Amino acid sequence: MEELLRTTDITLIPLAKTLLDAEGIASFELDVNMSVLEGSIGILPRRLMVRTGDLDQARRVLRENGVKFEG
């Protein structure tokens, strides 16, 4: 698995997951529990992971849909 994006924006990962699902790209969210435990103050980022072989396509899908992310 490779990290596709890391963010404290609670709306970005659901958007990215929806776009990836529509393209048949499986993704997995990490650090959800840590983010919940910190009390919604937005200091601990969540990560969205994809399979290594899907990373380039996943990045392309996000870019084509105007999703801002590092990578």
TrEMBL record:
Residues in DUF2007 domain copies: 1-65
SUPFAM superfamilies: GlnB-like
Name under which the protein is recorded: DUF2007 domain-containing protein
